[in-house]
UniProtKB/TrEMBL annotation:
It comes from Xanthoceras sorbifolium. It holds the Pfam family Enolase_N. SMART domains: Enolase_C, Enolase_N. The lineage of its organism: Eukaryota, Viridiplantae, Streptophyta, Embryophyta, Tracheophyta. Pathway: Carbohydrate degradation; glycolysis; pyruvate from D-glyceraldehyde 3-phosphate: step 4/5. Its cofactor is Mg(2+). HAMAP family: Enolase. This is phosphopyruvate hydratase.
Amino acid sequence: MSVQEYLNKHMLSRKIEDAVNAAVRAKSPDPVLFIANHMRKAVSSVITKIKARQILDSRGVPTVEVDLFTNKGMFRASAPSGDPAGMYEAFELRDGDKGVYLGNSVNRAVKNINEKISKALIGMDPTLQSQIDHAMIDLDKTEKKSELGANAILAVSIAACKAGAGEKEVPLYKYIADLAGRTHFTLPTPAFTVISGGKHAGNNLAIQDIMILPTGASRFEEALQMGTETYYHLKAVITEKHGAHGCNVGVDGGFAPNISRQKEIIREGLDLVKEAISRTMYTEKIKIAIGVAATNFCQGTKYDLDFKTPNKSGQNFKSGEDMIEMYKELCAEYPIVSIEDPFDKEDWEHIKCISGLEICQVVGDELLMSNPKRIERAIQESTCNALLLKVNQIGTVTEAIEVVKQAKDAHWGVVISHRSGETEDSFIADLSVGLSSGQIKAGAPCRGERLAKYNQILRIEEELGDEAFYPGDDSRHSL
């Protein structure tokens, strides 16, 4: 195509004339800059290049990063990763060569982006998020995205979402809200991990984490302050009772003291947190949540709360009914407002039972795996009343938006969650605000990859000003 043919095809002469006239009408002090910006807006954006690479997540494990280019700029995103991958979630493609990163490298996923996904998406309008995501799903052709890899597809999907926001010249959270058909913005109540256990820490605590929720704050900025101050009071409490070595942290930044009162080991952890809260000025304004991850210590139909202590394992088995009684007692003794995965991922009966008691929010994580079929079953059977959304478990931005709508239509709570393998990408902060999830779980107020999310919400709150709404106690019903 000749230059003249290109000019004629895109009607550039008319667009340049329009830009000059607009500069005159605006009485611009810098007409050349004004015309350049005007022309930039007049030309529709298309994806011109996609380049992927292997980077490391917060655990030092490889993951996928993508640079997506349009004629308006470059937009970068990376895929978080969990451990272990669940059988109902989208498939994370790794190379499997034990001689390279112990089998965890993602060069195959990177190659799929650079050679297959890139070819399919170049020339597409980045604002057509659903079309982009479904083009990748169709290219993959498998239910769990195992051909291209959910890690490959997700990184491109997030990068395209950022490019779409760039094309519309709006903040990312507003663009996501537009994609979801939402018109207002709710800032999430944060669930800060303060004590880590389970597979996230090397101590004896069976449950995966103990969290605090500053539900009594009036703004997110205040919630972050309350959570951070409590975190450091907890550090002092643990130092007094267990020494400085008890303040080592788990993968999410929560402290990992080696609490040892076996019979009441969960209570000992909760007592530490309760003591820390009592040392603040926010005693009535901070609630507690526990992430149990009970699948990790389920043995058949029993639950082994000593599974991490070799000489004790098998001595503290609890039945499903025993666990229900324990949860009832804990909720009566401590200000617990949310329990995540209180039973094994296939123990639908006991999860439904604890939900029916209505003593707290019951969150489905491994139970649901952000899988729409599992979510639909849980809705139909009234199994739980909140969704823990991990974007890498579903695989695209479009599907994440759809399952959040699915949960909210059922009047569930929604918790947007980080992963144990995180990156500096703060996407889930914008996702949480854009979808008005009402709750976010991004780890401790410690470690850069966790704080990237909380700091981004601070910026969003500042930008929204009086439009920002912090739900506090009503976070579960942030519809």
